Amino acid sequence: MEPITLAQEAVKILDKKKAQNIKLIGIEDISSLANYFLLANGTSSTHVKALADEVEYQLKQKNIVPDHVEGYRSHSWVLMDYGAVVIHIFTQDARDFYDLDRLWKDGEQVDISGLLTAD
User: Fold this and answer.
1) 4-26 burial, b for 16+ CB within 10 Å, e for fewer?
2) How many angstroms separate the CA atoms of 55 and 80, rounded?
3) How confident is the model at residue 39 (pLDDT cuts 50, 70, 90)?
4) Strand 20-26 to strand 36-41: parallel, antiparallel, or no bridges (unpaired)?
5) Contact (CB, 8 A) for 84 and 66
6) Which of 17, 33, 101, 117 is the most exposed place for a label (fewest CB within 10 A)?
7) Helix (H), strand (E) at residue 86
8) What HAMAP family does the annotation carry (predicted)?
9) pLDDT in the model for residue 119
């Protein structure tokens, strides 16, 4: 699956599970870490874990598995590394503290408005 397609699929999965403040940042022009960073918030540590579980489950149904997952025990930030796409799911406090939005502000802000359901 192409990186942008994988990222868009993850956006839809997170949106359906009520993730908040979903943001997709293209970083391939400024970093060799990945092509895209996907950032999202859960409303609690339980919600963060549920979001990560759902992304992993839904993508596994399409035979896509992460290279690495970190943070299930932290209860505030789960990082899911799918190679070209790295997914960060935070509590709001952790997102504010680590401020990846600011750190990667030079990346391309990908328009995902067409992928999100209107609430």
Assistant:
1) eebbbbbbebbbebebeebbbbb
2) 9
3) very high
4) antiparallel
5) no
6) 117
7) strand 85-90
8) Iojap_RsfS
9) 59
Domain boundaries, the chain: 3-110
Tens-digit pLDDT profile for residues 4-28? 999 999 999 999 999 999 999 999 9
Q: Taking the model in full, what pTM does it have?
A: 0.94
Q: Kindly state the tokens that stand for 51.
A: 């979001």
Comparing CA positions, the residue from 39, 36, 34 lying closest to residue 51 is 39
> Distance between CA atoms of 91 and 75, rounded to whole angstroms?
8
Looking at domain 3-110, its CATH superfamily turns out to be: Beta Polymerase, domain 2 (3.30.460.10)
Based on DSSP, count helices (H) and strands (E) in the chain, helices before strands.
4, 6
Residue 74 has pLDDT above 90, yes or no: no
C-beta atoms surrounding 115 within 10 Å? 17
Comparing CA positions, the residue from 113, 114, 5, 18 lying closest to residue 59 is: 5
d(CA 25, CA 104): 8
Mean pLDDT of the chain: 95
Taking every pair of Cα atoms in the chain, the longest distance, rounded to a whole number of angstroms, is: 35
